[in-house]
Amino acid sequence: MIETNETIDEFLARHADDVSEAVRKAAAQEILPRRRRLAAHEVDEKAGPHDLVTDADRKAEQFLTEALSALLPGSVVVGEEAVHANPATYEAIRGEAPVWIVDPVDGTRQFVHGDPGFCTLVALAHHGTVRASWTYAPVHDRMATAVRGQGAFLDGERLHAGPPEPGRELRVATSHPDYTTDEQKHALLGLRAPGVAPRPCGSAGLEYLAVARGELDATAFSWEAAWDHAAGLLLVEEAGGTHLTRTGEPFRITGDNDLPFTAARDAATARRVVALLAGGA
After folding, report:
1. What is the rounded CA–CA span in Å between residue 264 and residue 211?
2. What is the pLDDT of residues 260-273, one digit of tens each?
3. Residues that constitute the known binding site
4. pTM higher than 0.85 for the full model?
5. Which amino acids are annotated as binding site for Mg(2+), given as ranges?
6. Gap between the Cα atoms of 145 and 47, Å rounded
């Protein structure tokens, strides 16, 4: 538990590994046992056929809500499923208390279909700034972590995104068309340019990890839900990358961003993607 007058940095120095352990336990107890074993009544639609929730999402979020709140008394949890049940819960991101931002199963469609391309995302934020993040791919048992100012790591190995290779096509993962407005679709058309190879994204958390590892050059996303972005954006930053909205400002987890926005493995790539999105608009 956090001690009286303990700072967030001091808390993380003592408990970052405890958060990792809680994430692993949530996956081991509530997610993996349900993989490829979901009954029809354990899968529901939210906004539509591509927006799914399962018992694994709900149970893992409940597990993490209890575990993370116990680790940091006075903190609040903003989880995807809790916000779906009560949208007012999201306002805690703009509040005074430290906030855990949780996506229990990022890539629920992939999870439902039995694919391994999903992950669990946790970020700790305070006053609108992400201070630490955890990205866990349970099928492969790979944990990526970042603490602001201390670097990004995958299974203990430091990540360096680095610039793309000169002359190679720019690889960009983009929002699924189902989650874009007509204006955003038009902006994303700007990526259909010579020297750019856009493709639909999978799990947002795993796409951010690919950017941090230098396996993907950039993303271009058109939605703001903090549980999809908070953990990955810090991971990219701490690996040497950056993120920009179409106005050239960093993405804000508190909202009101000019969309689509990009996260990229270096600043030059981010500016190039933003320029293409502005041209498409």
Report:
1. 6
2. 999 999 999 999 99
3. 80, 103, 106, 228
4. yes
5. 80, 103, 106, 228
6. 31
